[in-house]
UniProtKB/TrEMBL annotation:
InterPro entries: HCP/CODH (IPR004137), Prismane-like_a/b-sand (IPR016099), Prismane-like_sf (IPR011254). Keywords: 4Fe-4S, Iron, Iron-sulfur, Metal-binding, Nickel. Gene3D superfamilies: 3.40.50.2030. One of its GO terms (biological process) is response to hydrogen peroxide. This is Acetyl-CoA decarbonylase/synthase complex subunit alpha.
C-alpha cells in the first residue's frame, strides 16, 4: 500500500516524489489508494516538469512515463522518438483544456496549461524553453505566474532572440503581466486579440463529488488516518 512505480533503479532525481509530498503535506491529500486525485492535484497545482535527457534506454523512457502518469509533464530527448509515444496538446483547441471549480463544479478555461504531457525536444534550447512553458498551472497565483512568464520570456529571448508569440495563451489578466515588460507585452496582447480571464483557486479535472479527500472530511475522518 502506498507504493508507486517510478521506473528503474538507475541513478536519477525523481520530481514525482517531491510532487507527492507536496500533495500530502501542503494540501492534505489522502495517499492510500488515491492515485487519481494525487495526479489531478499535481497537474493543476504543482508547477513541476520532468526532464529525461541523454542516451535512451527503456529504463530512461520508463522514468519519463512515470512523470506524465502522475500529472507531471515530461520533456524527453531526441532519441526517445524511437519509442513513438507522445502526449501532445493543441493549444488552439482550448476546449480540451477545460477545468472545473471544486467549490461549485462550474467549468472554466484558463488557457492551455500545461500544453503537453509528453514532449520530445530536438535540441537543448528547445528543451529549456519547453520546460519553462510546461511549469504553468491553472492554480498559479498572480505573483507566481509573473515569475513564470518572466522566466519564459528571458529564456526564449536568449535562445531565439525575440519575444514568444504565444503569451496571450498564458496571461489570464493584467495581474499576470510582469511589470518590467508590461508595455511591450500589452502591445502583443492587443495584436493577438487577447481577452482577460478570471482565475479560479480550486481547479480540477475530476468531478468534485468524486474527490475522496473532501468526502472523507465530510464523514469526519482525518486525512492522516485514512
Amino acid at each position: 500500500r502506498g507504493l508507486c512505480n517510478v521506473g528503474s533503479c538507475v541513478s536519477n532525481p525523481h520530481i514525482t516524489d517531491a510532487g507527492i509530498r507536496v500533495a500530502n503535506v501542503f494540501a492534505r491529500r489522502i495517499l492510500s489508494g488515491n492515485f487519481k486525485e494525487i495526479a489531478d492535484y499535481l497537474l493543476n497545482y504543482v508547477g513541476a516538469c520532468g526532464l529525461v535527457w541523454g542516451a535512451y534506454s527503456q529504463k530512461a523512457f520508463s522514468i519519463g512515463m512515470s512523470c506524465h502518469r502522475l500529472g507531471v509533464p515530461a520533456v524527453l530527448g531526441p532519441h526517445s522518438a524511437k519509442y513513438r509515444h507522445l502526449y501532445l496538446g493543441l493549444k488552439e483547441n482550448l476546449e480540451s483544456y477545460n477545468v472545473r471549480d471544486i467549490k461549485d463544479g462550474s467549468v472554466h478555461n484558463l488557457g492551455p496549461v500545461p500544453e503537453h504531457l509528453i514532449y520530445v525536444a530536438e535540441s537543448m534550447e528547445e528543451a529549456m524553453v519547453m520546460c519553462c512553458k510546461l511549469c504553468f498551472r491553472n492554480n498559479d497565483l498572480p505573483e507566481g505566474r509573473q515569475l513564470k512568464i518572466t522566466n519564459y520570456i528571458d529564456i526564449y529571448k536568449k535562445y531565439y532572440g525575440r519575444m514568444p508569440d504565444d503569451l496571450h495563451y498564458y496571461i489570464r489578466d493584467e495581474f499576470d503581466i510582469p511589470y518590467a515588460a508590461k508595455d511591450e507585452i500589452m502591445e502583443l496582447l492587443k495584436a493577438a486579440g487577447w481577452e482577460p480571464k478570471k482565475p479560479i483557486k480550486s481547479p480540477t479535472l475530476l468531478d468534485p463529488k468524486e474527490i475522496w479527500t473532501y468526502e472523507a472530511m465530510r464523514q469526519g475522518k482525518k486525512w492522516y488516518t485514512v
